[in-house]
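INSTRUCTION: Work out how this chain folds

Fields: amino acid sequence; protein C-alpha cells

Chain under study, with its fold:
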Amino acid sequence: MANLKEIKRKIASVKNTQKTTNAMKLVSSAKLKRTEELAKRSRVYAAKLTELLNEIAIKMQNASAEGIDNIYFKDAKNPKRVDLVFITADKGLCGGFNSQTIKSVNALITEYQSKGAKVRLRAVGRKGVDYYKFNHIELNDEIIGLSAAPDFKTAAAFISDVSESYVNGDTDKVIIIHNGYVNMITQELRMDQVLPIDSANLALEAVSTSELEVEPDDDDTLLNALVKRYIEYTMYYALIDSLAAEHSARMQAMDAATKNAKEMVKELNVKYNKARQEAITTELIEIISGMESMK
C-alpha cells in the first residue's frame, strides 16, 4: 500500500506541474500577441529610418568624389577593439533561447581574439550576466530588467555609452547579438554591426529618385544626428524583437512540458493500476491460503 500512496503522490504532483506549465503557456501566448504587434509597428519605423539614412548617404556620396568622410562610416575590416552587445532574457524556462545567444557570443569572442582583437562584453539580461559572472568572465557593462520591459530612453542611454566609446576611439567595432522573432515557432539568431555603419549595405552607388535635397553640411550635423537615432532605435528594436522571440520560445517550451506531463500521468496511472492489481491479488492469495490452512 505504501507503494500505491507514493504513486498517487507522484500523479498529483505531475498534474499540478501540468497545470502550471499550461498556465505559463497561455500567459506567454497572450504576451506574444502584444509584443508581436509592437514589433511590427517598430519594424516599419526602423525600415523608414534606414531608408532615410540610405537616402542621405547616397546624396552625400554623389556630392563628394572621395565618398563619405564621416567617423561613423570608417573602414573596420581589421578591428583591434570590438564591443559585443548581447541580449538575453531575465527569466528562464524558454528552452535553448538564451544558450543559443551565449554560444554565438562565445564563438565571436574566439573569432576576434584569434585575430588579435580585444573583445569587450556588454550584457543585457540576467541570464547572460549570470552566465559570464559564473564563468569569471569580465563584463564591461551590464543591465538587468531592460530585456523584460524594453524602454526607448533606457535603451538609448545604454547604447549611447557604446557610441561614445566608438567616437572616442576606445572601440573600433560594435555588434549587437540577439535571438530574433520569425514566427510563433521559429526564432533566428541575429548579429547586426551597428558601428561603423557598413556602407556596403547602403545602396551608395544607386541612382536616387527621391525629391529629398541635402544641402552642404561641413560638420555633418544632420548625418550625425540621424546616425545617432538610427543606432538608438536599432538597439530598441533588437530588445523588442528579442522579447517577442523569448515569449515564442517559452510558449513552445511550456507546451512541450505540458504534453510531457500528460504522458507521464498516463504512465503513472498504468503503473498505479498494475500495483493495485498486484496488491489485490496478493491479498486474495493470503485469504485463500488462510482458509486452506484451517481445513
